[in-house]
Amino acid sequence: MMEIGLNHYLVLSTILFSIGLIGVMRRKNLLMLFFATEILLNSVNIAFAAISHFYGDLTGQMFAFFVIAIAASEVAVGLGLLIVWHKRHNAIDLDLMSTMRG
Amino acid sequence: MEVLLYTALFAPLVGSLFAALFGAKPKMLITGIVTSSLLGVSLIASTILLVFVLSSGQFVQVELMTWMATGDLYIPFGFIVDQVSVTMMMVVTLVSTVVHVYAIGYMDHDKGFNRFFSWLSAFVFSMLVLVMSDNFAGLFIGWEGVGLCSWGLIGFWYHKESATWAANEAFIMNRIADLGMLIGIFLVYWNTGTLQYHEAFAAMPSLETSTLVWIGIFLFVGAMGKSAQFPLHTWLADAMEGPTPVSALIHAATMVTAGVYLVVRSNELYSLIPNVGLFIASLGAFVAIFAATMALVNRDIKRVIAYSTLSQLGYMFAAAGLGAYWVALFHLMAHAFFKALLFLGGGNVMHAMSDELDPFKMGGLGKTMKGTMILMTLASVALAGIFPLAGFFSKDLILEVAFIDHHFIIYSVLLLTAGLTAFYSFRIIALIFHGEDRHTSLGFHPHEAYKFMLWAMAPLAVLAVIAGALKGTYFEMVTAVLPATEYHVHSATTYWIMTIGTQLFVIAAIYFAYKKYMSKDIKVPDGTSAMENSFKYKLLINQYYIPHFYEEYLVKPYRELSRVFWKQVDQKVVDASVDGIANIFYATGENTRTMQSGNLSTMLKWMVAGAVALLSLAVVFGLAVRHSDEIKTILSGLGV
């Protein structure tokens, strides 16, 4: 049984980050996009916490808290907008949101 | 004295600016009156300065302000009124005052009346800067200023194609010469470290002769352009496209003599290099006879007078080149008076004949234009050098200088030219004022010019008559700064033979001109007579084919070369590369436009791609920095 070290955490963080990134690129459902973003942020949080522990410096874990707080408020705002959008258009498909087209 | 100096200098500028305020307005008499009276103020100030310089023998030098001061270079706006510049100031202000007053009448019906006076006064200001500056830089400013005003005034009637062409020709030819002058000035600064006249000239005797020769040659190239010496002479005759007062002031009395002034001012330099001086004198003598021959056949009053100016400038250079600087300056002064008078008279005739310039179409104008006839005849007598008028004292003196210095070739050329001068001057006098009436049948109804125009010319006439008497005083004055060589023929007999011989020769030429051109057989030439078809006549009337030569062998190849550069270099290289750069941006924009689809998913993909790209770069650079030593070894192994 080998010791769980920093590298393992970092590999987990990288894997989660990649999953999140692919999700951001591939998902067409707005709700799923939020999920993917959450995965991205949390992968970073894991890396922060692990490195912080590794160096014995609390700054990283503090940062992770900030990220959680920001992520929560972002999701709150985002979900609110999402609901309004769903009420109006009865769909949350990304391809239909193209009013920004130049 | 300083106040007087500034008054003399800046009064014309004030006048010019005042007239310029109304430049685009229709004729306002006030502009002419204000500029003329300010010129009068300048004249009075110059006269007081002249009296001061004459009586005290001192000079006035002021420094208006610092112009350039960087490192060792220090050029102030400094002005000097010494014996030489006060002479020039008198000539300039006097002739220009007369011309201004005259022009009020001459430009009476012209739309550009105000503009004319603005340019004319600006010219006087530039000319005063030129002659009053105490350093080469200020001289150059004035030099360019007069060039600019000359351009504006030759091309004054800019709706005429020929006038704009002549203006550009004059301007461009002068620029060519100015390059030489500028090189000369640079050389002066390079070798002496200063541009102030007295310091530069004081440093010159210690320089090497070859350096001095180059300085002398380059400065003289500038003088050649401004004074229209061969081979840069063609612009002067074409400059007659300008209004006649301009021809009188700029292209006879003042601006074209700037070259002579430069040589006189640099006398300390040219005294050190007598070989260059001899070259100047030879060129002067050549131009004297060269221009005089062209004047023999020309059928345009103003051009005849212009060639005569050219010829007289040749005399001045001959004198200056031989070291007789005060003689050159004296002839410059005398010439300014009678030549301006001659031109203004020509202007009266031109006005009377509705701008007709061919003297063969006139004849018998003396009956209607008595005043003009007297003034012009007087000027021509002075020009021909008949005792006791101005020309006798100044021109014969140049002949004597050449004789005494044993330059007999120059002497004979100048003597022959004196005869030619008399002949062509009286050729036009005879054709215009005497002989059969040929103009009435051509539908001309001549009238005499305004009275005040004739009165304005009177001071010039008086000076053309009495200027010779001022020779003694003048000599006393200018020799304070110029080499005081007195020219006396050693044996009295030789002197009398020379003087009387010259007089008889000139009188014979005048008689011949009268006899030939007062006869009843004179008709308007129609190109059929044997004389007109002779080779000599064709050579002369075509100005020795020099303009033709310039056109064929300089202008056309240049135009062709420019065309090649335009088509091959400009369009295919310069334009192509500029357009190419622009096209790259266009194409990039066109091709990447689809990226902006507005689709959030696509944008996110691009964002990720960008992040990945930047991250890869960061990694690559990080590795490169970490392993820089190894990379260097590899690169040096590859021979980079």
Give a verbal description of the structure.
By secondary structure, chain A is mainly alpha-helical. Chain A has helices at residues 6-26, 30-55, 59-89. Chain A has one domain (7-93): Orthogonal Bundle (Helix Hairpins). Chain A has 3 helices and no strands. In chain A, helix 1 packs antiparallel against helix 2 (30-55) and helix 2 (30-55) packs antiparallel against helix 3 (59-89). Chain A is elongated and about 50 Å long. The mean pLDDT of chain A is 89. Chain B has 640 residues and is mainly alpha-helical. The model of chain B has no long low-confidence stretch (mean pLDDT 88). Classes of the chains: A mainly alpha (102), B mainly alpha (640). The interface between A and B is small, with 13 and 10 residues.
In short:
The complex is a heterodimer of chains A (102) and B (640). Chain A has 102 residues and is an all-alpha fold.
Could you tell me the CATH topology label of chain A: Helix Hairpins
What is the chains' assembly state?
heterodimer
- Class inferred from helices and paired strands of chain B: mainly alpha
Class inferred from helices and paired strands of chain A = mainly alpha
Shape of chain A: elongated
* Broad shape of chain B: globular
Helix content of chain B: over 70%
In terms of DSSP E residues, the strand content of chain B is under 5%
Treating each run of at least 4 consecutive H or I residues as one helix, how many helices of chain A? 3
Give the rounded overall mean pLDDT of chain B.
88
Rg on CA atoms of chain B, Å? 31 Å
Order of helices and strands of chain A: HHH
Number of strands of chain B: 2
CATH architecture of chain A: Orthogonal Bundle
Beta-strand proportion of chain A: under 5%
> How far is it from the N-terminal to the C-terminal residue of chain A, by CA?
57 Å
- The poorly predicted ranges of chain B are none
Radius of gyration of chain A: 17 Å
Helix count of chain B? 26
Main-sheet strand order of chain B equals 1-2
Largest interface chains and counts = A-B, 13 and 10 residues
